[in-house]
């Protein structure tokens, strides 16, 4: 069995009297691609923010490589090899691609001055590694000039720098065109081919279905289903399951698969 | 380029041959000069405004504008403005503003005057002024950042507060520092070399160093990122609050240097020292091409903006118009510069 990279045990998060998460268990093994799916408001984003250290859980335990950690924070999460591509991409759009990739961990030499050429070199290498190359932009292009898919590429390049072991992608295809989405999946496959783990969050089940080894369905703050890819025949089966969970008592029977697919989109 | 790079480009091995530029990163504007112009368009635009303005002045009054005396008088007072314009570019890039620098200039130079008046070496006075400026910058910065206040209002308040303290204690009395002219510090910082005021060399050194800090240093990089998108800077582990306090400290240090220089020019410290610099300095930053919304800016442009603003007053009077025209031309240059930068700059947020 592959090494367990990270494990969240019995994680709860409440905002006042409102429970966003109520006792969630989630783990990711080395080299595994996990698809986390769920409706809007299911608690996906809260779970991701806890994983990346931006939000502190109300209760629960976080284990990195089997060892419990204390004082979990954004910096600790990055140190542990977890890189998150946030839903809003968290890019500084007026800066160059290089500046965004090295945001918060600039390569410096003498007295804190930047090693500009080294940074450009490293950025080029990174971008080639994920097949993120083009004739129209260079590592020194301004991020604001790039398309949505290309910006996602910058965010992913930043995440895989420093050999991060787990890449968390929060809705990476939201608001992207078809070709841009294809580009993002191309990046994701490159990342997977390099042996890193991925936690892929999406509400478009078809996107997640294509890429994940294992699915975790979150519903109203609780895990509704954890299943391997091999146990699911088609994306429609997952969609039907989610309908079932969302509307217990056979509402799903009212729709045919095509209708459900429409809604999932 | 080596063969090993080829598979990553996902090019078909047969078929239409691709141009060789495909193999390496290439900007569409290949020529270095085009790249240079694109990278520095804001400061080059400011330089253009300055050159046009000077050309108009020279045509209007060739005799005055070809005498060295005019330039020498500008070069004596210009450095004082430069020492605050440059740090302000950092503050504005960081998405903040600091209106408290005139009082910091007054306060730090007051400490300098007190130390010199007490008979100590002016170098010690400069050191004391720098400490004062640093502390005041830290105070103002902490108030804005940790107090969570609007920098526009909070620094305006601090400007009045500090100036008020100076006025209360001094009751309007100035301090003459006649012993200054014999000192080493004066020779080094405020004399003339071959008819050129020596202050300008220090100011140019300061501008060059700051431009490197802005463009080629971790501090400048983080200031730009924080001004651009503070949330993502935070998510990427940058201590956003610390960076913000640092830019205010930088203004404090710059204001202390500026205040000290202004006292050394006049041999006198006035309780109003620094007051007249508020609006020209702010105008210089924006005339220089640093936009108001944060994330980008130009130190060299700001410096050229300061030169432009310094020449307006001298130029209008020397061109034969009465002093009443100065404000009108000040405004005209500011508005034209802003329009020019608006046209010259792509805005991404």
Integer tally of domains of chain B: 1
> What is the general shape of chain B?
globular
CATH class annotation of chain B: Mainly Alpha
Task: State the low-pLDDT regions of chain A, or none.
Answer: 251-258
Q: Strand tally of chain B, please?
A: 4
Number of helices of chain A: 9
| Helix content range of chain B | 55-70%
Largest sheet of chain A: 6 strands, mixed
Per CATH, what is the topology of chain B?
ABC transporter involved in vitamin B12 uptake, BtuC
Q: Tell me roughly what share of residues is in helical segments of chain A.
A: 25-40%
From the coordinates shown, what is the CATH architecture of chain A?
3-Layer(aba) Sandwich
Poorly predicted ranges of chain B: 1-23
Describe the structure.
The complex is a heterodimer of chains A (265) and B (349). With 265 residues, chain A is α/β, with parallel strands linked by helices. In chain A, 34% of the residues lie in helices and 25% in strands. In chain A, the strands form 2 sheets. In chain A, strands 6-7-8-3-9-10 form a 6-stranded mixed β-sheet, sandwiched between helices. Chain A has a 4-stranded antiparallel β-sheet with strand order 2-1-4-5, with helices on one face. In chain A, helix 5 (148-160) packs parallel to helix 6 and helix 8 crosses helix 9 (257-264). Chain A starts with a strand and ends with a helix. Chain B has a single domain (45-341), classed as ABC transporter involved in vitamin B12 uptake, BtuC, CATH 1.10.3470. In chain B, the strands form 2 sheets. Chain B has a two-stranded antiparallel ribbon with strand order 1-4. A two-stranded antiparallel sheet of chain B has the order 2-3. Chain B is mostly helical and 349 residues long. Classes of the chains: A alpha/beta (265), B mainly alpha (349). The interface between A and B is large, with 42 and 34 residues.
């Amino acid at each position: 069995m592959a090494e367990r990279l990270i494990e969240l045990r019995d994680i709860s998060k409440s905002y006042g009297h409102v429970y966003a998460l109520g006792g969630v268990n989630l783990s990711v093994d080395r080299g595994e691609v996990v698809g986390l799916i769920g409706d809007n408001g299911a608690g996906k984003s809260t779970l991701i923010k806890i994983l990346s250290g931006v939000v502190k859980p109300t209760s629960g335990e976080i284990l990195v490589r089997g060892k419990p950690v204390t004082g979990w924070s954004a910096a600790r999460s990055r140190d542990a090899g977890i890189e998150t591509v946030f839903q809003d991409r968290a890019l500084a759009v007026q800066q160059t691609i290089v500046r965004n990739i090295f945001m918060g961990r600039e390569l410096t030499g003498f007295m804190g001055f930047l090693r500009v050429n080294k940074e450009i070199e490293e950025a080029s290498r990174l971008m080639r590694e994920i097949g993120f190359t083009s004739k129209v932009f260079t590592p020194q292009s301004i991020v604001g000039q790039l398309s949505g898919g290309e910006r996602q590429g910058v965010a992913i390049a930043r995440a895989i720098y420093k050999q991060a072991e787990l890449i968390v992608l929060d809705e990476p295809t939201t608001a992207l065109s078809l070709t841009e989405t294809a580009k993002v999946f191309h990046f994701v496959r490159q990342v997977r081919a390099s042996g890193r783990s991925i936690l892929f969050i999406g509400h478009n089940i078809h996107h997640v279905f294509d890429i994940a080894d294992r699915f975790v369905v979150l519903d109203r703050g609780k895990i509704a289903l954890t299943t391997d890819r091999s146990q699911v025949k088609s994306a429609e089966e997952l969609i039907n399951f989610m309908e079932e969970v969302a509307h217990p008592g056979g509402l799903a029977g009212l729709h045919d698969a095509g209708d459900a697919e429409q809604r999932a989109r | 380029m080596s063969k090993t790079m080829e598979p990553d480009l996902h090019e078909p091995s047969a078929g239409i041959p691709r141009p060789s530029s495909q193999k390496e990163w290439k900007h569409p504007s290949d020529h270095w000069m085009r790249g240079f112009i694109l990278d520095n368009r804001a400061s080059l635009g400011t330089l253009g405004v300055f050159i046009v303005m000077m050309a108009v002045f020279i045509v209007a009054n060739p005799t005055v504008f070809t005498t060295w005396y005019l330039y020498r008088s500008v070069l004596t007072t210009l450095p004082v403005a430069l020492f605050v314009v440059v740090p302000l570019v950092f503050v504005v890039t960081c998405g903040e503003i600091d209106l408290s620098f005139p009082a910091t200039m007054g306060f730090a130079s007051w400490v300098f005057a007190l130390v010199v008046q007490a008979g100590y070496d002016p170098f010690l006075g400069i050191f004391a002024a720098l400490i004062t400026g640093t502390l005041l910058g830290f105070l103002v910065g902490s108030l804005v950042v940790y107090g969570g206040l609007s920098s526009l209002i909070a620094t305006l308040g601090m400007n009045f507060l500090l100036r008020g303290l100076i006025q209360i204690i001094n009751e309007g009395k100035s301090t003459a520092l006649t012993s200054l002219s014999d000192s080493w510090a004066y020779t080094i910082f405020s004399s003339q070399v071959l008819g050129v005021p020596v202050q300008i060399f220090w100011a140019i050194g300061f501008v060059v160093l700051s431009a490197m800090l802005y463009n080629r240093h971790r501090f400048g990089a983080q200031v730009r990122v924080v001004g651009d998108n503070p949330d993502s800077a935070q998510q990427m582990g940058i201590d956003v609050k610390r960076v913000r306090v640092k830019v205010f400290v930088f203004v404090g240090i710059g204001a202390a240097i500026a205040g000290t220089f202004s006292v050394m020019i006049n041999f006198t410290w006035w309780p109003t020292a620094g007051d007249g610099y508020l609006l020209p300095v702010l105008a210089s930053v924006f005339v220089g091409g640093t936009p108001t919304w944060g994330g980008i800016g130009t130190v060299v442009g700001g410096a050229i903006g300061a030169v432009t603003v310094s020449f307006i007053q001298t130029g209008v009077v020397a061109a034969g118009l009465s002093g009443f025209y100065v404000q009108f031309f000040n405004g005209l240059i500011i508005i034209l510069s802003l329009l020019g930068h608006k046209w010259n700059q792509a805005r991404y947020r």
